[in-house]
Amino acid sequence: MQALIYQGPEKLTFEEVDVPSIRPNEALVRVESVGICGSELEGYLGHSSVRVPPLVMGHEFCGRIAALGDQVRGLTPEDKVVVNPLMACGTCANCRRGAYNICRNRKIVGIHRPGAFAAYVAVPFENVIRVPQDMDASLASLAEPLAVAIHAIKLGFKPLDDLLIYGAGPIGLLCVAAARQMGAGNIVVLDLQPARLAHAERFGAIGLSPREIEDRREALFPQGIPVAIDCVGVQATREQAMNLVDPGGAVIMVGLGQGNSELPMNHLVRQEISLIGSYTYSHEDFRQAVALLTRGDIAIEGWTETRSLDEGPAAFRELAEGISRFSKIFFEALNPPIAADAQPGSDVIEWAQFIRTAR
Question: What SS3 class is residue 35?
Answer without folding.
Answer: strand
